[in-house]
Design brief:
mainly beta; 5 domains; five-stranded mixed β-barrel; 1 helix; elongated
């Protein structure tokens, strides 16, 4: 006669629970635990063929595979609390309330670099700021940049909000800056610069589309005005911490200061030119041909010779053994002060100088000394003096 036993069911057995088995080796009844069975391994004649458990682990495919299904991981547990990825090129960032993470598109402002700072001076939204130091507990401290004061330059970024003195806030260090601020006075699609304090207008950032003029003012390109608007301006910030900016310099030109004290690329022309390798050429210098400190030499063997403007500033060696007759006629091309040096470059003979039409000659007229020297110098319009070893 069979005896039926009814036992209560335990819904959640644990590894230390015990039950009876009949040992196949000797047909004796023995006690084991759940842990003993699990320790046998998996498959074959021993072990557990499958495991059924409560979610998040569920059976899929074959009996030996399991699937792990998770819901969102909260931010407090190090997760995003999001159920899907954002769109291409989105940036994962903390939301404006500081309570959760979110995917932000470039339109929503993920196309700029923001830095937390401490404003030690009241600023208007969009004001360029420079770094003044560091405040423990608050971070980098900043104040309004000023192109007329080297101690307040260069600018590092622009203020994201209008704030009072000694207030924590943020700046845009690089990238797109937009919102409710007045940029209508700037020039759209133009480079903008840090302005000087003297040009401040209430409610407007200290920015300008015009390079600050004046020798003492610094020039810093801080960005590009992509939208000029009284209520919704936009600036592409490129503040690079460089106080002075100069453009590329064209070949064979130098920077010269113009009437506004700004550097301008200018070619050196006229009597002096410069190449793009730094070679300077002097074609002529009015009133002083030689800037090297000596007079170029010209040798003449003529018995008669008329001096022209080509000989101005030069030393002429006359080698004809007899008497050489020299004529000089004044010309407007001879500036007052022009000189011509004559040398009786021979052992015998002389040099005789005479004035041409419309020219007056004072002093001596002749060099009789062997290797003697005389100088013709224009002392006023039409008047020359001949001096030196002359008679």
């Amino acid at each position: 006669m069979a005896i039926n036993y009814t036992y209560p069911v335990k819904g959640s057995p644990i590894t230390t629970d015990e039950f009876l088995i009949i040992d196949s080796a000797d047909d004796s009844t023995k006690k084991v635990t759940v842990a003993n069975i699990l320790a046998l391994g998996q498959g074959g004649d021993v072990g557990v063929a499958s495991l059924t458990a409560v979610s998040p682990i569920s059976n899929i495919g074959t009996a030996t595979d399991v699937n792990l299904t998770l819901t969102t991981v909260p931010v407090a547990k190090g997760g995003t609390n999001l159920t899907a990825l954002g769109s291409a090129l989105n940036v994962l960032q903390v939301n404006s309330a500081g309570t959760a993470l979110e995917y932000a598109s470039t339109v929503e402002g993920a196309k700029h670099v923001i830095q937390n700072v401490r404003f030690v001076e009241a600023v208007v939204k969009g004001d360029p700021v420079y770094i003044t130091g560091y405040s423990p507990g608050n971070g980098t401290t900043v104040a309004k940049a000023d192109a007329s004061d080297p101690s307040k330059m260069p600018a590092y970024g622009i203020a994201n909000e209008t704030v009072s003195q000694n207030t924590n806030g943020t700046i845009t260090a690089i990238g797109s800056f937009n919102g409710t601020f007045d940029s209508s006075y700037l020039t759209q699609n133009e480079v903008i610069y840090v302005d000087i304090a003297a040009n401040d207008v209430a409610g407007r950032p200290r920015l300008t589309s015009t390079k600050p003029a004046g020798e003492a003012n610094l020039i810093q390109n801080i960005g590009f005005c992509s939208r000029a608007n009284a209520n919704n301006g936009e600036i592409e910030v490129v503040a690079v911490g460089r106080a002075n900016a100069t453009p590329n310099l064209n070949s064979a030109k130098i920077f010269l200061g113009n009437s506004a004290n700004q550097s301008v690329a200018t070619a050196v022309t006229g009597e002096v030119t410069i190449s793009n390798t730094g070679v300077t050429a002097v074609t002529s210098i009015s009133g002083n041909v030689s800037i090297q400190g000596y007079s170029p030499i010209v040798t003449k063997s003529d018995a008669t010779f008329s001096i022209s403007t080509e000989e101005a500033g030069k030393t002429i060696l006359f080698t004809n053994g007899g008497t050489v007759a020299i004529n000089i006629t004044d010309s407007s091309e001879y500036p007052v002060g022009s000189e011509v040096h004559l040398v009786n470059f021979k052992a015998s003979g002389s040099i005789e100088v005479a004035a041409g039409v419309g020219t007056t000659l004072t002093g001596g007229t002749e060099i009789t000394y062997a290797y003697g020297k005389g100088t013709l110098k224009k002392e006023s319009s039409g008047n020359w003096v001949f001096f030196g070893q002359v008679v």
